[in-house]
Protein 1
Amino acid sequence: MNLEWSGQEQIKASKAKVWAFINDPAKVASCLPDLQSSDVKDAHNVDATVKVAVGPVRGSFKFAIALVPNADGSHMDLKISGGGFGSVVNLAAGADLTETSDGTTLDWKGSASVSGPVATIGGRVLDAQAHRVISTTFENVKNAVSQAA
Amino acid sequence: MTSTQKLPERHSIGQAMKRKEDPRFIRGKGRYLDDIVLPHMLYLALVHSPYPHARIKKINKDAAMAVPGVKAVITGEDLVAAKLGWLPTFHGFDNQMVLAIGKALYQYQEVAGVVATSREAAADGAELVEVEYEPLDPVVDPYQAKLDKIILRDDREAKTNHIYHWEVGEREKTDAAIAKSDVSIKQRILSPRCHPAPLEPCGCVSDMNGATGRLTVYMTSQAPHVHRTAFSLVTGIPEDKIHVISPDVGGGFGNKVPVYPGYVVATVASVILGVPVKWVESRTENLTTTGFARDYHMDVEIGATKAGKVTALKVTTTADHGAFDAAADPRKYPAGMFGIVTGSYDFPTAFAEVDAYFTNKAPGGIAYRCSFRVTEASYAIERAMDILAQKLGVDPVQLRRQNFVKKEQFPYPSPLGFVYDSGDYEATTKKALDMIGYDALRKEQAEKRKRGELMGIGVSTFTEIVGAGPGKHFDILGIKMFDSAEIRIHPTGSGIVRAGTRHQGQGHETTWAQIVAEELGLDPQELLVEEGDTDTAPYGLGTYASRSTPVAGGALALAARKIRDKARKIAAHLMEASEDDVEWKDYKFSLKGVPGKSVTMKEVAFAAYTNPAPDTEPGLEATYYYDPPNLTFPNGTYVAVVDVDADTGVVKVRRFLAVDDCGVVINPMIVEGQIHGGLAEGFAIAFMQEIKYDEGGNNLNTDFTEYLIPTAQETPHWETGSTVTPSPHHPIGAKGVGESPNVGSPQAFVNAVIDALSPYGVTHIDMPLTREKVWNAIHGAAPKA
């Protein structure tokens, strides 16, 4: 099952501040909704345990998150892989930053491939749930950076 | 032999006796597999692949073994080391992995087993077995499989996804007849993948006794003897050291015929650990890994004259068998009895072919109250006859009647190689039309159409083929498909009856007693019927494919007649007469020409033990192994009446009538119950049930929230009727009925809905007819002006 979404956040902070934030694996992990614990591996990698509820599937999923920044400080790729309940979830997200008059625009795109019981049991609600998770993550990024600014 | 013949009042056969097994079932006193608890018993949980197609790079057992209570973790490699990595499938053309070896070939395939002191610990352990997969592109459609771009089975010599080609009939003659016919139709008709979903899922308790070397396997089995032989062949354990017990079975529908990985892993675990091991699958495991049904994509062509006489039938089928060829068909018939596809109609020529393919889906195909592909065949012809009627602009019932095999044509050799035993399709159909008031319904429909209301009438006039079967044609694992009965009459005239079949709700404990009671003039209430224990029952091939009454039913009658032959000698001795002067009349032995001089079977039974005839073996028992000379061919005419809501796509089944002809009826109440149950399933298949996979190979119908079972709320009210055309070759004239309602009904529902939608130019919709599909069919095309 392959899913795709996109969205945009207007962040009232400089591009440099947003860039610094999304380069910090601990801070990025802290923006995941229903985060239970996180374990920073190195400057670009963090393991996160997240509470998941998709239809009748409820429990913890473990994800390995890798941050892949580009050289000019305007695009970040996120690779999130993991799963639980015999299910496998692979998420890929990309964020583009653009300086605006009153802050930064963050355009994001995400896609996911899902195998196993989560796809089958949660099929009808999975798209909406996964969209919620990824859009909430970027919304949390916006709120966290804005508060810090 | 007329189909409405009035049978004389009989002692036991034909009586609507209440089922002897029901008191224990309705009071919760049955003993099912999961009720069995043995001392020191461990529990098995299985690990399943999340991927439909993936290489297995590594399996790490450490975390699972660290769970308190976990005693063992078993993988495919472990089984290979024990030479139990692969199992032969029932017809012997393929081997099936027990646990995934090297690759996982379908989502939810069993990859490892965890054995622990509790069900919970086993499940916790299963969660922690770390399997490293390398996902591969899946093949989820037989037409994609056909391209051979991705080869699923690298264990097989032939590097192709194609499993077999099978054909029957005359290709050239059929093609030529269709080409020169006045009118022809061609339609791809899908009989979708569905699942029998018995209420009780599959399971076993394997108990290897290290001291005696004897393996006892309690299992949910429709064919305990075949399973014993299969266990012996696969494990090398001598067959006398294997004891299979099939306790009360909570529904089978063909789902409990194959050998599943859980049985093997639990047995291996019991051998290794020296204690009993229980495996009971979950609903999801049942729906995702065990024998599914159907998945036949059928291209159906019919040629006909302008006047509506059919001239030729051609059916080209692409079959999706899943990852292994585990369709439990007899060896000679890889596509089962698909040759019944000419149905009730007298086609001068016909041709059918089936090509089967591997896909990354669960294996199976022969299940769900379907006698070896009869359901698919019957659906195809009954749907196609309606499409032809629509094209010719004639009444679909009229078209059928015009083309029926006539009563006087029986025994009827069909163009695809079967010899139909008996039938009177016109009489069955006339009875159904009279009962439902067909002409009045057509009038009502015409009036409603003028008002823009969507009412539909659908008919199915099907012919079944059941009772496998003659040993010369049918086998499982090479074992001929006979069946058996053993009867022991006790001194006081009660007795015990054992058969090689194993009921799962069919009522054998009652009907078998009725057959024996009829033959011997005894009380059916005093005949205990026992099945399912391989230590005590005579060898039989089991209960599926509507074969119990046609085959074991024959064995029971003939075993009883053997007893009667011996009893005649004893009766002669008791009446101090010559055996030639003793006749069996009115259910007792009488002396010819001496009114009032008679002895009952009870008196004979007592004498068999207390005063046996000279030179006669004491006791009164017999065994019979019955190899039927032919299959039986039940038929029926079903009529569905539906109303369709154009705004919502909701179909309401207003009436449904099933008139069945299953030959001589042993217990009309049980037959009616069988028909009700099968119709509920046919209704579900027509409107609700499909096992779907998405493009990534995810199974989308893995539990009862996504795979629907009709409840009392959805299930329509059933009307039933019958005609009786005895089977000429069966000892009591019976034909079997268990599968008729499932085989015959889906097309009646679909034909009714298409009939309702015909003003929109709709000619076909594939099942299940969900509201969405019906709505789309209505709104995809504007009504004809």
Protein 2
Amino acid sequence: MDAMTDAIPDLEARVRRVVSRWGHDATSLVQVLREVQEDCGQLPPQAFGLIARYLRIPYSRVRGVASFYSFLAVEPRGEYRVLFSDNITDRMAGSERLMEAMCHRLWVEPGKVSEDGLVSVGRTSCTGMCDQGPALLANGRAVPALDEARIGQLCELILARTPLAEWPAELFAVQDNVRRADILLGHGLAPGDAIRAALQRGSRGWSEHAANERSWREAYVGAAQGPIATLEEIKRSNLRGRGGAGFTTGIKWEACRHATGLARYVVCNADEGEPGTFKDRVLLASHADLVFDGMTVAAYAIGAGQGFLYLRGEYRHLLEHLEAVLERRRAANLLGNGICGQAGFDFDIRIHVGAGSYVCGEESALIESLEGKRGVPRNRPPYPVTNGYRQQPTIVNNVETLCAAALIAVHGGDWYRALGTLKSSGSKILSVAGDVARPGLYEYPFGVTVRQVLEDCGAMATQAVQISGPSGMCIDATEFDRRIAFEDLPTAGAFTVFDASRDMFEVARNYAHFFAHESCGFCTPCRVGTSMLVSAMDKIHAGNGTQHELREMNRLNRVLLMSAHCGLGHTACNPILDTLKRFRPAYERKLRSLDFTPAFDLDGALDRARQMTGRDDAAAHLESQP
Amino acid sequence: MSERPSFLLDGVEVPFEPGQTVMQAALAADRYIPHLCYHPEFTPHGSCKVCTAKVNGRLMATCTTPAESATEVESNTEELNELRRTLVQMLFAEGNHFCPSCEKSGNCGLQALGYDLGVMTAGFRHLFPDRPVDASHPQILLDFNRCILCELCVRAAREVDGKHVFSLAGRGLDKHLIVNAESGRLVDTDVAVTDKAVEVCPVGVIIRKRVGFATPLGERRYDGTPISAQALADAPRPLERHHD
């Protein structure tokens, strides 16, 4: 403890600096914690008290919030904290072997801090680098494309205590891997085009009069024309949310526009946490202006003055770039006051960076996190469109949805609707990864068959495809003529391919661990149920499973579906049920024929004693069980 | 007199005041819906899910669902009681509950609910978490082994005592109760033994020292009256009282 205080002598000044940068505002608690940790390289125990004092909130709230997010280290995690991305695609690409090699080289046990306090090595949920995995996060910075050489290089840098800022830049290089572009990825628009087009819709010789009025939105009938015309185009396009749920965007925007409140907010959900998806990473890296154009168009349509981009912590490497784009847009009058010369059109965007929590992708949990709280989904109703950020009307839209909205602002709703299927207009970006020759982004008009995608990405001997990540569905080869569309296979974009060599039981087990790790713990069924699913799957994996486990998982699924608080719990059983239905032999060959086998393993229980005594001879083992 | 709005609960008409939840209206009308984290004196938050019922066919936590006219609520069905039994079993498996040696036995909401719902076995493998107790306070013991994370103490301290004593930390299965002190010890908080937060714990986490067995086993709160009847006896009633 004392050694740690000595290590950061000016802790108080550092905390004060961060807190004042965030305006002493308790709703910025997550950001304050994250920045203090970045600044100090850790969160020293004394920091919690200081943050509580400067933000004037209870100490226990600071602890409670910090311990919710897995990237905030409430316990010492070493000078270097290495977290291996643990998506199934990382595992398929050899992440376990690489992690073992690193632990061996650094002389550290997984999940623990090395004895000299230098480094810890652990696992984290999918970091969104599935097209260039295996990947890891080193002190929050993404390092993709791992192989033995890279692991060796990282170990040398860590052992030499080289500061991350001095690590070779190529370690952090992330590729876009756009393999097929359609209207969105090939948009060809300049920054601000969408905003100017939206303003144009309202002009028709009226808009200049709105200039000196109280509010461009309310004061003058003519001034409302542009926003309403834009909203009409969004509605006409029949655009549906790209985050997975598929709610009609125009209806969401209209409900927010009509809701009464003191202020309205636009939130861009860039908490792309579904294992296997990485499209938003590319949109933010290479099309940030389109994303911000979409947010600004949304602000124009609903009358919002403030926007937030909630960037998942795994994409921390994009923050400086995104801040620079925002700065450039302010200078170009695409943000700030009187946007594009439209008096009263005032809007700005702030970036909040997440800190390792999948459930924050759920819109009400995301808002809680924006407000500096634990990311626990709210009770609904009321919904965010009426009671969102600070209880004010708020729209939360996915990155890709906002990009599509920008396109619609330029080209109109009919143009957009001409593409895709009856109930799914426009295009969809798929994040293709797994057993394919060319992983990356593939944008198609809605309605494309799974078979077409598999052909384009060079998939061979495909056994199964996980559509939309673990919360989506797993399909087998008999279903490859099904179509990507809300009518058939709705998806948030993940498209993970498994060839015939893969054990689908292990795929489901990986996903079960994911849900248990990410459950917020608010409700009983999800908190306990997801962990019990894990223990049942682990028991089968260990060769001790029986029909009893299969029955128990069915029972847990019923409880989760009936009573879980949010979508995480409702979908936590999907991977197991889908694979059980389609790949039952993968489970059954692991089962013992007995009806019940205790998970307790008598010989295994002696493991610890053997470790302590350094013995592993035959006499230190019980006779093998019958 | 204008007609009061009402909904149907298991086929029986339940009147409600605008703003009431299904649970509040049901209890006021002498109708019981099993629950654990709900308490009439504090803001409902809907985490235990024991009160889940079908509201117009949709499964909802009745403690947070606003009552609405002309809705049909199904609660006392075998399907839902089976769900409740499973949830109670999950809570038993999650913590370390040893009823025979627990001084809360007989006064415990979890135990009483288990009996009332007919929970006969643990149903799941016990997780046996490692949860140290906090005996730092001279008058109050915290035995986290029995915590069911209902947050009643968190709410009672905040809403009634006007203090910050308890909070939740961690997430998922690691979610746990903490106290508002840098030392992490109860003695360093401003808790008082007379606080509502100390009295409200439905299980045996927050225990007043030296009064343990003042009421002998057999004469305790739920020894004579099942929790379903006790909850109705405790429920706040409108002044007009029921007429039967």
